[in-house]
Amino acid sequence: MRWNKEAPLQRPFRVFGIGVAGIAFAVSLCFLVARSADEKQLTVVTPQDHFSVAIQQREGKDYVDLQNVLDSMGHSSATVEGDNFKLHYGRVEAHFQSGQAAAKLGDTTVQLAGKFQLDNGRGWVPVSSLAELLPAFTGVHAEYHEVSRRLFLNGGGTRFTAELKKGSPSSLAISFTAPVNPRVSTESGKLKLTFSRDPLVMPAQNLKYDDPLISALHYSENEGGGEMVIEASEPLLASFNDNGKTIVLSAAPKLATATPPAEAQPLAGTSSAPGGTASLENNPNSPAITSSGSAALGEAGSAPHTRYLIVIDPSHGGSERGAALSDTIAEKDVTLAIARRLRAELNDRGLVTFMIRDSDSTISLDQRAVATNTSRAAVYVAIHAGTLGQGVRVYTSMLPETTLAPGTFLPWETAQSGYVRSSRVLATSVLDQISKNSSKIPVAMMPAPVRPLNNIAGAAIAIEVAPQNGDVDSLTSSNYQQTIANALAAAIVYSRASLESAR
Amino acid sequence: MIPRHVLISFALLLAGIFVMGLYMLSLKHGVETSVPSGSDSALLAPPVSTSAEPITLYVAYDDLGVLRKRTAMAALPSEPPARARAILRTLLSQYLQGTSPHPIGPGSDINDVYMVNQNMAVVDLNNAFADGHRSGVWEETLTLDSMIATLSANMPEIKQVKILVDGKERETLAGHADLITVYDAGVVNQLVQALQ
After folding, report:
1. Which residue of A has its CA nearest to B20?
2. Contacts of B188 in chain A (CB under 8 A)
3. Which end of chain B has less neighbouring CB within 10 Å, N or C?
4. Nearest chain B alpha carbon to A13
5. B21 and B56, same structural domain?
């Protein structure tokens, strides 16, 4: 029940309103029913592009408007006389009869997989018959994949080859004929690549490898497209090369590598820059550089970390602008500017950094946390900007502190709980360094419910930079940004020993 | 050839639609001129039979970055969900005033409060609340802390608080504050003490 004041409505007005609402509801219902019936799509893939046409269920089979398909490739014309349907496409003239499964295309008779149906002057044929009809109309080869509802014309579609490069450890290079953008997910002993938008043309395939790391690759089609499953004895890392035309699967970096911190390697799948930097968006085809997902979290605490990787997260980006700091200043731009300065400062101090974004791109909060966890970052710093108050506020998670036993599985929503102490050490260090570097910048530290701090398995803080002396324009001042970046970098270096001993 | 009776029916229907449209416009005009505007978004106290009693509010002050303890009078129903909702709406009425120390978007309201196992309050905000809320870690944190601390102060049996928006789970309030998590009232109260 709502308690807002309502304007007094006269009874006739209300009756009229109910009537109109009823009609609108009925129309909407019809529209929704009609839409739900039309939801299935046939994807027609040509060498140049691909397009979708609606599929309808008729007599238990998938049917498609034949003229609709032909018009997507050229121009057709049709005439209807009673039950007869005559269709012209180029020089081909085809005769169909409603209720009949045989059709004449020129001098050839084609047997359809179901009865031809005439509906409002449009001719509907079973989708599976297109593989025979389209070559007769257009002269091109057609191949229909029923499971994924995809029709490949004239060799269209993306093909792939997989090559195992043996070594220690081995890697699997999957090469595609066009850039691909699969969704990467993992489960125990498997890495899945789901191709929902890429028109992979390969039929079902099973490849076995005699290798201790990668044992098999399975490719199969489903309603959503295609799915590739790679079986492996260890968590794999998927890296995208050649503008998304090659995916290399290799063993994820181990926890107990003996690499000195200063020589730590940037993440696979990302291009490195001098000074040891990388970013999640260096590979736009990779939704996240994840390879080991929850398995990676599950191993937390089982071995000492020796790499001191700093993940810098410039909050927001792309369509997500964050706070409107003024009419012209968006939070996402200020956070990126400060993050870049922090990266430079950390690189100058010999630390390896990873930027969640280095341009104006949209990355979800979960993707940020996944990227941080799978990279096994020692430190995560999220950067925010706001207009309220002055100076810098340093936030840590509000989760209660717990102690992690080796091999503990960490629930996603409370992954930070075992690292709260480290996060507070880092936050305190930031507080000290900012106070030390610039007494003019007020700084405060407190727990706050900032996403995705709770999901980070490592020392994690969020800083919110507020204007200096109440002047919003100061947020874009290079001096102000540099002072904060300097203090943050100094704090991260200063707290390194404490954080590493805690890990 | 269209039969004559179909044409006549069609013409009559068109005429009917036209007349009803005019009638609706005249009704709309009448309602608009008879009701004073500008007061629709004001929250009203629920019609309860009990007399008003003092409640504790933790009111956020943006300029100071603090939460201040305030007392207000409100008539509270005896049922816990309705009681919790009335308490929160009293708090929101402070924020919806023109001179609010922590303004929130117009039309912000609590759709409902549900109690789970007598110690967890599930607060369902309306869309206007979340969509109209200012974006910023501090702004959003003050709002949530203020609501949770106020609930906890007046209904100590509430140990956990979960926030929904229009009946659905939402990732953040306005881009920053976590709405996926279940808030521990004890942890929030500690923070609020520090913020006083």
Report:
1. A16
2. 398
3. N
4. B27
5. no
β-bridge mates for residue A311, sequence order: A354, A380
The Cβ of residue B38 has, within 10 Å, a number of other Cβ atoms equal to 6
Instruction: Please answer yes or no on whether A323 and B136 come within 8 Å at the CB atom.
Output: yes
Q: Are residues B121 and B183 in the same domain?
A: yes
CA A295 to chain centre: 19
For every residue of A106-133, DSSP letters joined together read: TTEEEE-SS--EEETTEEEEEGGGHHHH
Residue with tokens 């926890």: A255
DSSP A465-484: EPPBTTBGGGGG-HHHHHHH
Per mean pLDDT, which range of A206-215, A239-248, A359-368 is the poorest? A239-248
Nearest to B181 among A2, A322, A454 (CB): A454
Q: The domain that contains A186 carries what CATH number?
A: 2.60.40.3470
Give the neighbor-by-neighbor strand order of the sheet with A205-208.
Answer: A183-187, A190-195, A225-232, A214-222, A205-208
User: Domain holding A65: CATH number?
Assistant: 3.30.457.10
Q: Which domain covers residue A451, as residue numbers?
A: 261-502
DSSP E strand stretches across A3-60: 41-45, 50-58
Which comes out higher in pLDDT, residue A28 or A268?
Answer: A28
Answer yes or no: are the C-beta atoms of A217 and A207 closer than 8 Å: yes
Give the total number of structural domains in chain B. Answer: 2
A-interface mutation test, from B62, B67, B85, B138, most A Cβ less than 10 A away: B138
